[in-house]
Amino acid sequence: MILETIVMAVSSIIVLCITVKLWGNKEIKYLTLYDYVIGITFCLIAAKMATGPLDQFAVMLCIIAIYWIAILIIRKRT
Questions:
Q1: Pairwise CA distance, residues 39 & 3, whole Å
Q2: Which residues contact 61 (CB under 8 A, 6 or more apart)?
Q3: Cα 24–chain centre separation
Q4: What is the model's pLDDT at position 26?
Q5: How many helices (H) and strands (E) does the chain have?
């Protein structure tokens, strides 16, 4: 149980770091409310990945992928 939690936490940190790197670097003063909300959402998903059961990991990765697709669509329209 403890080993599973450690693996899930490390995995969620890796996924979060990759997501943030792909999202791009912005200074705090250039963040919009939209960027802030998306950042918080990704952090919440990563926290759920770290604390959830191992069988939920693939579901969380799918959710992150869906958010990425939505972000790309919204950014192209603005």
A1: 28
A2: 15
A3: 13
A4: 65
A5: 3, 0
